[in-house]
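Dear V.,

Thank you for sending over the compound details. I've combined the ligand you provided, S-adenosylmethionine, with the protein sequence from our construct and run the structure prediction for the complex. I'm sharing the raw inputs here so there's no ambiguity about protonation or stereochemistry in the SMILES, which I know was a concern on your side last time.
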Amino acid sequence: MEISPLNASNMGAYQDFGEDSLRAWDPEGDDGRKYLLNPTILRMLGAPEGRRLLDAGCGQGYLSRMFASRGAVVTGVDPSSRLLGYAIQSEAEHPLGIRYFQRDLSRLGILEDAPFDAVIANMVLLDISDWKAAMENCFSALREGGRLIYSLYHPCWAPNASETWSSKRHVEINEYLQPYEVQNKHGVNFHRPLSAYLNFALSSGLQIVEIAEPLPEHDELRAETDDIMWHVPNFIVVCLRAGHRQRK
Ligand SMILES: C[S@@+](CC[C@H](N)C(=O)[O-])C[C@H]1O[C@@H](n2cnc3c(N)ncnc32)[C@H](O)[C@@H]1O
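Below is the predicted structure of the protein with S-adenosylmethionine bound, written out as structure tokens.
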């Protein structure tokens, strides 16, 4: 498997993840995933039963397992041997019929189970330097009418914005329009303006189905969620539909 060189910092950081921190991600991911991303993705996807899904950049595989346990036929791909190794081990211990492949989305190649009813790239495109190739490969993996659902940190977040929220109850941003690299504990993410991803998808012939800036679904969750979740969007989740020109 060929890994594009600029992902090296992330791959190195993921390699150091301990078994406990990978297991702590089960069964629903962190709070942002549990309260914001998972409910939004599941709603955009509709009933998963019998659908052929690609979990693109599946990481340790929690979302693949969530889909498969709801009856979907799931393929997961990820370049990180550490994260994918956990996903494969978990499948061996508790089989759900998920097929995993070590792949770089920007150099995906043909997958046996393609075309898919939906491709889900949960917090993945922001890890990828060659994001246009990665998105194009996601489009190509879809059947006609299939959906690409991708999520990102909302780009209204600049590095250290959460610190300004704690002290000032607002987030500060001094660069939005220009892309830049964000150094974090897992390597490097890429900040890109929303229009970059959206216009690329539109120019490739996809249609926007929905754009969500999720907040917790129930008011009762106020007590157990971070206050900021109710005021500033942590994430953006986009659902796109492939037209007949997306298949190569
Ligand atoms: C923040 S994690 C998200 C993992 C998983 N989707 C989740 O929500 O838990 C980012 C994932 O993107 C993967 N990734 C990084 N570069 C990639 C690439 N070029 N192709 C596919 N996945 C990539 C990483 O290995 C990692 O699993």
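A first observation: Strands lie at 52-56, 73-77, 99-101, 116-122, 142-153, 180-184, 187-191, 207-212, 235-241.

Warm regards,
I. M.
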